[in-house]
Amino acid sequence: MSCFCWSKKSTKESEKKTTHVNTNKPNHQVNTNGNVKKEFGVKKELGVKKEEAMKDDQLSLDVKELKIIEGSNDGKTAGKRAQTFTFAELAAATGNFRSDCFVGEGGFGKVYKGYLEKINQDVAIKQLDRNGCQGLREFVVEVLTLSLADHPNLVKLLGFCAEGEQRLLVYEYMPLGSLENHLHGLSPGSKVLDWNTRMKIAAGAARGLEYLHEKMQPPVIYRDLKCSNILLGEGYHPKLSDFGLAKVGPSGDKTHVSTRVMGTYGYCAPDYAMTGQLTFKSDVYSFGVVLLELITGRKAIDNTKPVREQNLVAWARPMFRDRKKFSLMVDPLLQGQYPVRGLYQALAIAAMCVQEQPNMRPVITDIVTALHYLASQKYDPRTDPGQTSKRGPSSPRLKSDDDITQIGGDRPERD
Ligand SMILES: Nc1ncnc2c1ncn2[C@@H]1O[C@H](COP(=O)(O)OP(=O)(O)O)[C@@H](O)[C@H]1O
Ligand SMILES: [Mg+2]
């Protein structure tokens, strides 16, 4: 979960003001993955009543829905709605939140693996840290968004517990953990993600985002796309998780939603960080950062690197303009095992997504089409040694091949 803080005076007007005046003084929060999360220009204020917490979010329009869910104490799901669990059930599922059931910790609190007898299923249980800076509002938004959403590339919320002071979320358990762990947290000797798996993960994550942007009613801006929120199931099937920062997208003629700037440093679109104007293209930028991480194996922000390489996008941008540099960008852990054309095309998509101007970034549906094609072109290192500039089989032209020239780059090789 990303860092969330509630400002009591956060009417829509004050939200706007806060983002405009104070975007350069982020608060930092480090989770167990070593991620630095920042929230920009947001006052900390804890102990907010639930009603207050709901008041200012567009998703609170659907709060009635939540009340229906909370009211259904029979523990049965109605349609896609999340069911309620008692605290005793969740404590039993995790051996009273035993340390060996602990799987990780984010801004929201600790996550435990458990087995819930009632539904005969392994689950991940996220316990809201009552002393943390994230809050009830995020809990509500998470429940609402995931209750309304249903897609194979979104993690399923099975239920929740809102008993007394306790706030817990119950998700399907994702046995392979997060993409972050596979890309950046590999223990010695563990398997490096191969090229095909990386493209499969990128394509699946894009489909999850497309569902939020294009299929959900009302459409939703995710606001928290990053590697640690892409969870992996059997066969590295990716699902997006953590919807506490989600916002209903602009409606009517509006192109943006004005809001406080929140999210994770390194993934946040520069236009959104500067103006507080959130658009669907803010998510597209974050997606581009994730795609760059998949290609390069580098972190969005890495303070252990020389200054000029610490910010992945800033490091990559000048290299997009020089085709000779493309092979230097790819993750060295792949040991040259990648398709040259595939690399160019993946870089072209990433380059378009992280463009400074939001209107120059593609819409998610075009990204899905391009990545679906890329992921379907299975790379076989035995028959297709990567580092040569051998041409691949004849293939439809990707828009991305053309568009990399828009950012001043050389045109990548194509049939
Ligand atoms: N549904 C899940 N299944 C398996 N592991 C999970 C699940 N949800 C979260 N986790 C693990 O718990 C860690 C903490 O998750 P989270 O609280 O969402 O923080 P963050 O997204 O900042 O890492 C994740 O990095 C992941 O490894
Ligand atoms: Mg998460």
Please explain how this structure is put together.
The protein is an alpha+beta fold. It has two domains: 3-172, Phosphorylase Kinase, domain 1 (2-Layer Sandwich), CATH 3.30.200.20; 179-376, Transferase(Phosphotransferase), domain 1 (Orthogonal Bundle), CATH 1.10.510.10. It has 14 helices and 14 strands. The protein has helices spanning 12-21, 50-55, 63-71, 87-93, 136-148, 179-184, 195-215, 270-275, 280-296, 312-320, 326-329, 340-353, 364-376, 399-403, and strands spanning 26-30, 36-40, 83-84, 102-105, 109-116, 121-128, 157-163, 166-172, 220-221, 230-232, 238-240, 247-248, 257-258, 277-278. The strands form five sheets. The protein has a six-stranded mixed β-sheet, with helices on both faces. The model is unreliable at 1-79 and 388-415 (pLDDT under 50). The protein binds adenosine-5'-diphosphate and magnesium ion.
Give a concise summary:
By secondary structure, the chain is α+β, with helices and mostly antiparallel strands.
* Number of domain modules: 2
Question: What is the structural class?
Answer: alpha+beta
Let me know the CATH homologous superfamily of the largest domain.
Transferase(Phosphotransferase) domain 1
* Assembly level: single chain
For the biggest β-sheet, the strand order reads 3-7-8-6-5-4
Bound molecules: adenosine-5'-diphosphate, magnesium ion
In angstroms, what separates the terminal alpha carbons?
43 Å
Determine the fraction of residues in helical runs and give it as a percent range. Answer: 25-40%
Q: Can you summarize the main beta sheet?
A: 6 strands, mixed
Over the alpha carbons, how many angstroms does the gyration radius reach?
Answer: 21 Å
Total number of β-strand segments?
A: 14
CATH class of the largest domain: Mainly Alpha
- Content of β-strand: 5-15%
Level-2 CATH architecture of the largest domain: Orthogonal Bundle
**Number of helical segments with 4 or more residues:** 14
> What are the low-pLDDT stretches, counting only 5+ consecutive residues below 50?
1-79, 388-415
Order of helices and strands: HEEHHEHEEEHEEHHEEEEEHEHHHHHH
The CATH topology of the largest domain comes to Transferase(Phosphotransferase), domain 1
Subcellular location: Cell membrane
GO biological process, one term: pollen tube guidance
Keywords: ATP-binding, Cell membrane, Kinase, Lipoprotein, Membrane, Nucleotide-binding, Serine/threonine-protein kinase, Transferase
Family: Belongs to the protein kinase superfamily. Ser/Thr protein kinase family.
